[in-house]
Amino acid sequence: MSVADGARPGEVRLATDPASIHDATLAFVGRILSPWTDRGDCPRNMREARERGREAAVEIGEPYRPALSGLAPGGFAHLLSWLQGSRRDLALQMPRHADRPTGTFALRSPVRPNPIGLHLVRILAIDTASGVLRIDAIDALDGTPLLDIKPYLPSVDRPPET
Amino acid sequence: MSVADGARPGEVRLATDPASIHDATLAFVGRILSPWTDRGDCPRNMREARERGREAAVEIGEPYRPALSGLAPGGFAHLLSWLQGSRRDLALQMPRHADRPTGTFALRSPVRPNPIGLHLVRILAIDTASGVLRIDAIDALDGTPLLDIKPYLPSVDRPPET
């Protein structure tokens, strides 16, 4: 580890950039159609995204459209995205407005060894022919590749009573 | 698309196996240490896993251990895993006990174009030196590669009031 180049004071870099490691490969199954084309303007999280009051969409690639069968509008789903512009080599990061560096696994920053975004969205409408799903909001840039859609199930996605 | 080889009636296969597409690459950051070594014995989801009453663990690879800094025991986190034994080429699947084929994106089956597992777990203890996190339960086989840890945040991970 070393202090990260071009990073904020206190940030620490991994010795090997995970981008150079090829343990497994991904296939993009679609892309996010988002109102946000500028990184500085993109909401930081889904709460901020909903507060902006702008709908978004997801376009599924043609081969994968049959896999939408059974998905219902009105329900919630997790989208998994590939945050392709993000660096992957930081172990400790300095979040904006934070007073000390924090480990990547304690943050929801897009900067992580595998920059997979997890977005809980409401599905408003589904057009199976065009593969376009309208969603309530998104905290990702226009064109962000999509990896997966998983229906939200309270029985497994909500912390259990303790 | 065609009827899937070695699959159940009604299942439909993608023309191109996503395993042969290399749009992006992943780095394994650790592995799951699980009581389940046999696929037939592995819980089907996190609810079933908790009902079994068996704790599990996650071991983070040495380079990534500093990234645990700031993660607190007692809280919940999403684990993202790589379900490496799963086929990736089914668009429509026939779940057990189902009466009709359903699209992959409407199911939580491990069979999906990108077999990324999403597991909401409670972190019981963290040993930063060894990189071992004890967790309450897991619905994955022993040795399953780990891709990411994301802290659970109710503000973004819980469906909003409507």
Describe this structure in words.
Chains A, B: InterPro entries: TrmO-like_N (IPR023370), YaeB-like (IPR040372), YaeB-like_sf (IPR036413), YaeB_N_sf (IPR036414). The structure is a homodimer of 162-residue chains. The first copy, chain A, is 7% helix and 32% strand. By secondary structure, chain A is mainly beta. The longest helix of chain A has 7 residues, at 46-52. Chain A is built from 2 helices and 11 strands, in the order E-E-E-E-H-E-E-E-E-E-E-E-H. The model of chain A has no long low-confidence stretch (mean pLDDT 94). Chain A has helices at 46-52, 154-157, and strands at 2-3, 12-13, 24-26, 30-33, 56-60, 76-82, 90-93, 102-103, 116-127, 132-135, 145-151. Chain A has a 6-stranded antiparallel β-barrel with strand order 4-5-10-9-6-11. A 4-stranded antiparallel sheet of chain A has the order 1-2-7-8, with no helix packed on it. Strand 3 of chain A pairs antiparallel with strand 3 (24-26) of chain B.
Number of strands of chain A: 11
- Mean pLDDT across all amino acids of chain A: 94
**Low-confidence stretches of chain A at least 5 residues in length (pLDDT < 50)?**
none
Task: Tell me the overall shape of chain A.
Answer: globular
CATH superfamily of the domain at 26-86 and 111-154 in chain A: YaeB-like
CATH topology grouping of the domain at 26-86 and 111-154 in chain A: Elongation Factor Tu (Ef-tu), domain 3
Oligomerization category of the chains in this entry = homodimer
Largest sheet of chain A: 6 strands, antiparallel, barrel
Q: What is the CA-CA span between the terminal residues of chain A?
A: 39 Å
Helix % of chain A is: under 10%
For the CA atoms, what is the radius of gyration of chain A? 17 Å
Spatial sequence of strands, sheet with the most strands of chain A: 4-5-10-9-6-11
Q: In percent, how much strand structure appears in the residues of chain A?
A: 25-35%
User: What class would the helix/strand composition of chain A place it in?
Assistant: mainly beta
InterPro entries (chains A, B): TrmO-like_N (IPR023370), YaeB-like (IPR040372), YaeB-like_sf (IPR036413), YaeB_N_sf (IPR036414)
Family (chains A, B): Belongs to the tRNA methyltransferase O family.
Keywords (chains A, B): Methyltransferase, S-adenosyl-L-methionine, Transferase
Protein name (chains A, B): S-adenosylmethionine-dependent methyltransferase
